[in-house]
Design goal:
Layout: H1 3-23, H2 27-40, E1 42-46, H3 69-72, E2 88-92, E3 96-102, E4 107-115, H4 120-130, E5 138-144, H5 153-170, E6 172-176, H6 182-196, E7 205-211, E8 227-231, E9 251-256, H7 267-278, E10 293-298, H8 302-313, E11 318-321, H9 326-334, H10 344-355, H11 364-379, E12 384-387, H12 397-412, H13 417-430, H14 433-440, H15 453-461, H16 465-473, H17 478-481, H18 485-493, H19 499-519, E13 532-534, H20 535-546, E14 562-564, H21 596-605, H22 610-618, H23 623-640, H24 644-671, H25 673-681, H26 692-698, H27 702-705, H28 708-719, H29 728-736, H30 749-771, H31 789-797, H32 800-824, H33 832-853, H34 861-870, H35 872-891, H36 897-914, H37 926-961, H38 968-983, H39 1026-1080, H40 1089-1102, H41 1119-1145, H42 1148-1204, H43 1207-1233, E15 1273-1276, E16 1282-1283, H44 1289-1292, E17 1304-1308, E18 1314-1326, E19 1334-1341, E20 1346-1348, E21 1351-1353, H45 1364-1368, H46 1370-1378, E22 1384-1391, E23 1400-1410, H47 1416-1427, E24 1432-1436, H48 1445-1457
Parallel strand pairs: 3-8, 4-9, 5-6, 5-10, 6-7, 7-9, 10-11, 11-12, 15-17, 18-23
Antiparallel strand pairs: 1-2, 3-4, 13-14, 15-16, 18-19, 18-21, 19-20, 19-24, 22-23
Length: 1462
Amino acid sequence: MGKAELDSQLVHTLAISTAAKHLSLSPSFQRHACAWIRENICKKECCFFEKDLREEFCKCGYPKAAHTDEAIKPEDFTGQTWDRHRHVREVPTDAFGDISFGGLGQKTAKYARVSADTSPEKLYHLLTEQWKLSPPNLLISVTGGAKNFYLKARLKNMFHRGLTKVAQTTGAWIITGGTHTGVMKHVGQAVRDYALSSSMQGNIVAIGIAPWGVVHNRDKLVHPEGCFPAHYLMDTKSQGQLSCLDNNHTHFLLVDDGTNERYGVEIELRSLLEKCISKKQLGLKESGVTIPVICVVLDGGPGTLNTIYNAMLNGTPCVILEGSGRIADVIAQVSGLPISRVTIALIHQLMKKFFGQEYQRFPDLYILEWTKKIQDIIRMSHLLTIFRVSEDSQGDVDVAILQALLKASRSNETLGIESWRRQLELAIAWNRVDIAETEIFTEESQWKSSDLHWALFSALVGNKPQFVNLLLENGVELRDFLQEEETLCELYQQLPSCFFLRKVAKRVRSSHRRRRRGLHFRPRVHTVKGERISLTHVSDEVRHLLGKFAGPIYHPSTPQHHLSMSMEETSVTLSKLPAASQAPFRQDGAEAQRDAGRDLFLWAVVQNNKELAEIAWEQCRDCMSTALAATKILKKMAEEGIDADEAQEMLELAGHYEKHAIGVFNECHSSDEERAQKLLVRASHSWGGTTCLRLALVADDKNFVALSGVQALLTQIWCGELSVDSPVWRVLICMVFFPLIYTGFLVFRRDELVKKDIKKKEEMKTVQTVTGGTFRTNSSGSLQKPLSSWSRLKGLYSSPQVKFYFNIVSYFAFLFLFAVVLMTDFQTTPSTGELLLYIWLFSLVCEEVRQLFYDPDGFGFHKKSKLYIKDLWNILDVLSIVLFIFGLVFRLTTELFYTGKIILCIDFVVFCLRLMAIFSISRTLGPKIIIVRRMMMDMFFFMFLLSIWVVAYGVAKQGILIHNDNRLEWIVRGAVYEPYLIIFGTFPTNIDYAEFDINSCSMNGTDPLKPKCPVLNENQTPAFPEWLTIIMLCVYLLFANILLLNLLIAIFNFTFQEVQDNTDRIWKFQRYELIKEYHSRPAAPPPFIILSHVYLFMRRMVLCKPPIIYKEFKNKLSKIEEEELLSWETLMKDRYLQSAKKEQSQSTERRILDTAQKVTTITEWLEREEESSSAAVLKRLARLEEQVMKSTKALQWIVDNLKSQGFAAKASQTLPAVVTDESHDSLRNTSEKKDSFHVNSRQFHYPNSKLTRFPVPEEKVQWEVSFSSYMPFYYASEDCGDQTDGSEPEVLDKYRNPGGRTGIKGRGAFSRLGPNLNLDLVLTRWRDSERSVLEYLAVWDESQETFVLPGGPIDSADQLPATLKRTLGNKLYETVNANVSAGTKVFEGYVDDCRNTDNAWVETTVLSIHLDRASQVMVDVDNMVVSSHCGLQWQEVSSKTRLGSNQIHSLRQVAALHNRMF
């Protein structure tokens, strides 16, 4: 495969993920989706027309015209009666595509007409693959009243806000009925409000699943090839019994069962789809967590109660909004009560209260069934959450929904690390850090750092900075997290598509090609997939972005640790290398102490992720170097990138971290100036041995370099050993009269330190004298010694400041000598002065060469030469030297002697311009030079604009006045030179008649000293029209003199105003290069500097000594000193962050936000108080009304008794009724004292049958309680049917379930009436000889798909169940059966089993047998466990065991038998 093809494949691979999201918009994709829908999605149609009560209508509900001819005259169904299951067939759907609702906003949605028998997997594929919906992290099923109902304003706002917030933050799907009525309308309004909100981002997915047969105006949606779009009209006024689709939903599945105008046909398919989605994996990684489903209920009737009941039986948590009406309020009212208090009478009362007139149509049997269901719902409290607006702690609806899911998650598993892990996975998937903070990271959960590594990785890859921050606050150590290079490799593997990833991918490709060429073999095409990338490639790319002066940040090891990058997949995938190839990186020197914060920060910065980078930067130790390195990396990527918007974001992030570096350094400098200066020049091991100062310079961080602390360091380096406070005039005097340095005339820095130490010592002595105490001093902090005489002399002349002044004097002398030679002593044979000039220039050339090759920062010659050429003064140096060489060569040639002098004269001008560099050190003149340079650039572009007018006017004027002049010099003079001079007031005399002089020109143009005369007429006067040339001149002067020159003045003024504010900052930045140049420059000025060059050459080339290393710009500290300095820097960083947060909190914007939040909170509190007070008043009025009614009845009874004079008799008749009520109350109280009645035995659906139990509420369970309406069904499994005739009553009456009524009679699924004996065997052992862990033997049950205790039905408790022979084997069965008598009966009695009936029930005996580890039985059991292929397992006896409630109770008793905590 060629290079171009490989690169193309690489770029294509990296672009797949970006292009995929735009694919759905293309026509080709639309055609593919249509084809898939036609092939896989069907509708249903009636194939047998049978007249209904209405003659023109079929029993399917459709008119006769909607049927095919085959359906109207069927041959296959003659003589049959219409049946929905037999006479409805599936055909390819004819309604799908995009639906446009029109109106404001032109809302569109996807829709498809689907068969009621469609596979849920196909529907999920349609949603995710064809309609390109991202798989949900949460499924919210909203159910409730299908008719319009009233919601209070506050509850409505909270529901809308909470629903959209939870959907937007978690990436949830909302599933409703899809029509524009009831709860579906409220969901649509919530989605609409979300769409209109500018504060939220992203799209909410609202899927409506509605019956096709009840959709109004559905004929607009039908088209065999799909509608793109279908224009749908919402006409709620004329819809009748039908319903319009809600225009705020985003997707519609219109369920068709072949019938028309029938509601509820979609319920089964909706339930199956929700169940299918709930089994899908959450996220991309195989974490074992499936997509959670929750049901949200508003209002609703009996159908909604069935939906809630079935959902909770399937383990789906439900959130019910109190105050929404009807069944939701009924459940909310009884949710906090004990089961025993939820009576039939109470349900009657609540139904009457919340259903109003609708209650009158409810039969007593229905109330009985609903009471039983409500009791079961309340019993499953872990799945039930009531949202009450009046509770302050409840929060919004979104919080209630997520808390309900976490509560259900906790109950599904025992409280342990697995349960907390699942909850944390859900919270991360939802990106709800508030839920994690309040519900997961509590005192109950104990987390180790290693337990949260997976969560931190998931939060980083998922770009969830708030979760990253929360995890770090709760004990995750970055050092432990990134201890293995594998983790860092996986992070780079999961980088989103970005500029850095593309650059690294190309680097991998090129290194792979080089490696193949080195091995001299040609791989096949399929080996492209095996390419790998190591952290060395990342290091190389970072070094490229930083600059070659920085060393590698990751050192390679042998063999290298690799990442796998597949070019045929959409992203980079990790290569699972063998253990031998996974060698760690070299752990030597500084690499042994890698900064985990730096690694994570770099990973975040290269993808331009501000939030994650901010968190990682706070964890860095070398924070200032890290921030400055980030500015360099980001600016370099912005420079090389193509996307302008992305580049702008990078530049903004670079500016942000420059501010961070400035803030930290200011904090450091205000605390300790000396340490702050050490930080600037400290060699940072985290960033390839470079320094903060160098990083700031290469990153062009002018604001940082312009800081007073940085400038103080540069000034200190500039002055050398001299004091920075020494006046310049004293320095100049001492340069000439150096003995003055020994008199104290010039102060040195060491002198200041000595004085400071002496002063400090004197202050200590004074304190000791006053206090009478003694202070221990640090012996290492001895007094500074004064400089010696030689050190003073050396310090004077080695100071960069003194070198600069000497070079200025030398340069003036050079220019003076150069001018004298050019004007007075330029002979054919070079004079002595001219020879001295040549020697002087040679020394300058040597110094320029030295500067070019001097590379203390390690840039490399290529980079160094680039930096050298970019400097304007170096360009002038090179130009002056080159011109001097050319002039010298020409002047030594006789023929070109004068030409050489001309070149040297021009060269003198260049040398004079170079003199401006001496002003760059001046604080006053230095910034002005910057302004001049900017104005020169402006002038260059202005001259280009001016040249257009000059040439335009000059050519036109020359063509009009002069006819066919063939002299080039006079043509240029007339077309360019003269128009240019006109701007400055020099007007030509040949443009008008008045000043024309024929003697000043040549008629034929033969005189080389005169211009050619203009065209003349017969009178020897100019023939051109005078008015034309004058008008042209006026127009030219108007534009050139007035317009363009004033434009130039305006440009200069704008440039001056723009640059003036930044000149000081730019001057401070450029000052560094001058200081560094003279710091490394030899002390002697030219031409004596050539002696220093000879010395340096001999030292480097002859003596082979290394170059002198100066610590002023780069200082390598000892390990202890560096650790101390970094710790101090970290402390200063924390102070800076605290002050920044404080400043932000006190900002005007923050105060406004806080005030707005407080106002909102107060408003909500007032509304809540108003509602609660009004509710309290209504409640009191209701109680008062009730008391009045009771008083009225009592008075009426007294009056009646007095009138009839039979008060005693009536009283005696009334008393038994009172006694009866009291007996019921006492009975109820006794029932409350019981633990609980059997629950599983009263489940509505009897197992392995289609039979439904008669509802038995809690208060009617006991046989002693009268239950006149109790009519249970008879069932026996061998009858193969449901019988309701109550057969064999005399036999059934002999057997009564000791637990009470169950709602079904007969023997059910049992083999006999009465008790059916069962035995559970608990075989236990100690895991080791130390008896640390108690284990039990568990058997895999295929029907329940879980492990259970071995057991089965028995005839006698003296022997094992026969069913265990297949599980344990005959030999082991006989052995264990022989030891039954030695076992301990842990439990024996009635068991609440779902198969129990009124006349047959289960009685279980739990037998515990403990096995000795050394016994033969133990050996046989272990052999059986090994040969069972995981059918048998030893499991720990603990609360984490996943067994049924009855078996867990038995296991708890076994643990107590062995004195073990359960």
